[in-house]
Amino acid sequence: MKHQWINYETSDFFDELLTGNSNPRIAARALVKYFKSISSEEMEQRASAARLAIRDMGVCFSLAENDGDADRPWPFDIIPRTIGSQTWNDVALGLKQRTRALNLFIDDIYNSQNILRDGIVPTNMVLDSPNFKKACSGFTPPYKAWANICGTDLVRDETGRFLVLEDNLRVPSGVAYMLENRDVTKRILPELFRNYSIVPVDDYPLKLYQMLSSLSPRKIRRPVIVLLTPGIHNSAYFEHAFLARIMGVELVEGSDLFVDKDDSVYMHTVDGSIKVDVIYRRIDDEYLDPEVFRADSKIGVPGLMRSWKAKKISIANSPGSGVADDKLIYSFVPEIIKYYCKEEPILPSVPTYKCSDPDELKIVKRNIKNLVVKPTDGAGGKGLLIGPNSTTTERTKFKRLISQSPRKYIAQPTLKLSTSPTYIDNQIKPRHLDLRPFILTGSESWVTPGGLTRVALKEGSLVVNSSQGGGSKDTWIVDEGT
């Protein structure tokens, strides 16, 4: 069998491990040397060991299929991605800056609305957004931190520059898979961890617990924290159960909680009711409280918003935080950073056309073949048009959609996403990827060292989302030269 690297080409994309002339990047030297030293047979043995470990650990993800939800083992690539520590330190500063500005924006929108009066962001774009929740007006959560857990999607362009692709401020998922990726990699490549200086990620559960504790209305040593899940049929239920178990908090559904006449939240237990201080919620706003949002919700808690506004309970992420999660608002984030932080953005955003702007709509329709068109409230890679890969029929359909509902769409240039060596079908091939680091904000702010790298497993595909069949790999932040 030929060695897997023999036909690897970095092409005209920025490759995470190799330079244009196929030499290892500084942060990847030891990693590339190791994988080039092992035989094809050993490579397949390691990959098989990874698949077995994932099955034994029960790491799975639910895919929406035509015939219902289908659980499948977590698709994992054994070749890690490396990022130099100095590069990452700059990215982390940019993520903290961006999250701070977005939290200040959300707090302003539900209170003074200064940014709207000053004309930095158009009023109608915010107040007409389905993510603006009027019921949250007049409230400020602890530390003005609305989005306590933020998952910011990053990509690298053909020069290797990091850009922010989107912000996930409501119920971002994926961090459990980041932790499991590291665990699996340690199992199958233990020798690399002995010889490589890799920043650990396994303190995330402690950091998350500390952040949630800092939100407690009762200043007690051990506040009662619960993780609120929609239930076992949710695609991210594995992560809900994983995080609750590893933090040592109760995993609850809406029926496990109730709001008493004093507006406090309590949890049913076999020993009686226990007062709850903090809810890490993993259900959407619309289903949180049937008294305020959807009356037909069976997974929420009646009276929860009343308790929250009375400051008897803290909820992470706060209801209403999605007002900054809208992809139309994304296009204003550079101005939002300048407005609240009085600083230039450290991390650039992807140039974005707003279809709600008549002039920009004309540009989008004229150049749709070269653009990616996204629904402003979309998630999981659904409802996209990737212009270069689209048919004439698909482009005609999207022109009609954006003309009918321009507020619901934005468009961006098709980026040359970076690639990384990926082991597929006994060969090592370049595949496009992104990165989702997680930013925790409570009494302090903290960024995961690296994050969840998602990989488009199909050749040439730019869609990396797990829900659309993408895979994943471990992400290493390493000292250059190690």
Structural notes for this entry:
The chain has 482 residues and is an alpha+beta fold. 30% of the residues lie in helices and 23% in strands. The protein has 14 helices and 22 strands. It has helices at 29-37, 40-57, 85-109, 114-117, 123-127, 175-188, 190-195, 204-214, 237-247, 304-309, 327-330, 333-341, 358-366, 392-404; strands spanning 60-65, 68-73, 76-84, 149-156, 162-168, 225-228, 250-252, 257-259, 265-269, 272-275, 278-281, 314-316, 353-354, 371-375, 385-386, 409-413, 419-424, 427-436, 438-441, 445-447, 452-455, 471-478. The strands form 6 sheets. It has a 5-stranded mixed β-sheet. A 4-stranded antiparallel β-sheet has the order 5-4-19-20. A hairpin with a 2-residue loop joins strand 1 and strand 2. The mean pLDDT is 91.
Please summarize what this structure is.
This protein has 482 residues and is of the alpha+beta class.
Ends apart, CA distance between termini: 31 Å
Mean pLDDT: 91
Catalogue the unreliable spans: none
Spatial order of the strands in the main sheet? 3-22-21-18-17
Largest sheet: 5 strands, mixed
What general outline do the C-alpha atoms trace?
globular
Summing up helix and strand content along with how strands pair, one would put the structural category as alpha+beta
**Helical segment count:** 14
